Amino acid sequence: xxxxxxxxxxxxxxxxxxxxxxxxxxxxxxxxxxxxxxxxxxxxxxxxxxxxxxxxxxxxxxxxxxxxxxxxxxxxxxxxxxxxxxxxxxxxxxxxxxxxxxxxxxxxxxxxxxxxxxxxxxxxxxxxxxxxxxxxxxxxxxxxxxxxxxxxxxxxxxxxxxxxxxxxxxxxxxxxxxxxxxxxxxxxxxxxxxxxxxxxxxxxxxxxxxxxxxxxxxxxxxxxxxxxxxxxxxxxxxxxxxxxxxxxxxxxxxxxxxxxxxxxxxxxxxxxxxxxxxxxxxxxxxxxxxxxxxxxxxxxxxxxxxxxxxxxxxxxxxxxxxxxxxxxxxxxxxxxxxxxxxxxxxxxxxxxxxxxxxxxxxxxxxxxxxxxxxxxxxxxxxxxxxxxxxxxxxxxxxxxxxxxxxxxxxxxxxxxxxxxxxxxxxxxxxxxxxxxxxxxxxxxxxxxxxxxxxxxxxxxxxxxxxxxxxxxxxxxxxxxxxxxxxxxxxxxxxxxxxxxxxxxxxxxxxxxxxxxxxxxxxxxxxxxxxxxxxxxxxxxxxxxxxxxxxxxxxxxxxxxxxxxxxxxxxxxxxxxxxxxxxxxxxxxxxxxxxxxxxxxxxxxxxxxxxxxxxxxxxxxxxxxxxxxxxxxxxxxxxxxxxxxxxxxxxxxxxxxxxxx
Length: 660
Hints:
Elements: H1 4-23, H2 29-44, E1 60-63, H3 69-79, H4 85-89, H5 119-138, E2 150-155, H6 156-160, H7 162-174, E3 179-185, E4 188-189, E5 192-193, H8 202-209, E6 212-216, H9 222-234, E7 240-245, H10 268-277, H11 290-320, H12 322-331, H13 344-347, E8 354-355, H14 356-370, E9 374-378, H15 382-385, E10 404-406, H16 411-424, E11 428-434, H17 438-451, E12 456-460, H18 478-483, E13 489-491, H19 496-508, E14 514-517, E15 522-523, E16 538-541, E17 551-554, H20 559-571, E18 577-580, H21 584-588, H22 592-598, E19 606-613, H23 618-621, E20 626-630, H24 639-645, H25 650-659
């Protein structure tokens, strides 16, 4: 007779295999191999409450190997998070709650969208950093109101991806003792044995990073798995790395241990053989014995007791520490950033020419006082990107209360960690690097947009204005790349008011990430710049004619060329409108009436000026207009010389308008 624990493990396997088989698509190998480890963790060690998935002090669980999503869906179904058998049967179908990879905000209980391998590892590091910071801010003696673990499960693919090494190197440096990694070590990847491309000693690598190392020799031994998890929880000075030796596709006689178990349905005959081999009482798809459901219900109720105890603790905490309780509410208030709207100091215009990166740095140091839960930093570039918050301390192993994050030269994991901090809740994060290195950031910024979380990306040194560093450091196509991304706002401001607008839009956003693209060189301030920049584009200087002779559009540093070209054209009797367009994305979201007001269709003589790729401007200049942009990479020379050589001069703008 198979005991109830073993039946419960097998329920995960059967449901996962049935879901993949019915969809005729998916990855059964990981769920079959990791079912025991996942069950032991969720059933006996992880604090979570199926009746309150958003409980703030719950342990976090991230499935970094997101291709094994049916493992997570089966857990959520069995523990009573709201997924039904019908949902499992709709795996990978249109509109279902069980898509091919776990998607945040789409399925209750999913903590992060995990598609690209390794991304979940890095986001889990961000969650652990958030827990450590919030604990340092709020916990008092006898009142550990922030006290939970972050668990992440991934396999060989996650460990091969460089992002996991970046993130774990930082996690070890920071001594994130509440981070526990479960490594599904089955030595199989899509192409076969990992020996063909991955023979390093992973444990030695993790030891070098500063992790506690634990090994489970038999990935089906619940007792051994449980002991390893408890040992990991006991060492709070180091993150822990548990190697769980599993067999991919466990239980399926024809597929167990083979690469073919990874990414294709087992086949109807093999599913039947799996059920027979595991001693499953029925061949009916998605069948689970009632005693197994009852057992899971009992387990869920037992895990929920942790929240009951925490609620009592938190009530007492609020009575004894009312100021901290009020601060807690502010940390968790998504509308808190809107206080900046009426803050005169925030919107105060600069009085002299200044680089937008410097103006942004001043904005950050204003916002930090309005938003005490703002935390962030740069990939070893804070002095250049101006992203350091004065007097806020540095987040480190010795000071988790610090609000300045030092990511080291790790742009990819930096972006993922920023996502993880946001996903944890209670904090607003920003990350920063040079704009040209946003190529390293892009995959995780894409996840920000997919998940609908308001991540903030500060990109400086935004054009050929970088100058002497040459083409490797001068962005060209990056702006078009980010503009092309759905649910993503890009601001390239021209002065202090537009920079303030960009920051306001970023911190006030609820579901859309924002990139601020900022100059290295000084720019002038404009008397007519205004909060209308929040509409993405607006009339900076207008023609006195009811219908302008032409429209010049520009962003960032090139707005100065547009304004000066207008003055020159007026001398020759041409009265043009200057439109500053700090954000195409936001402008596209405005009503058609506003778009027509700014860019009247009757005016077909249009010139756009931007010292980056001209891709994307065609929709605004039309067939009769002209774009002055970059069609090549940059060069190494002083910035002024580069602007001249590449045609970004007042004379060239005037000539372009007259040529239409």
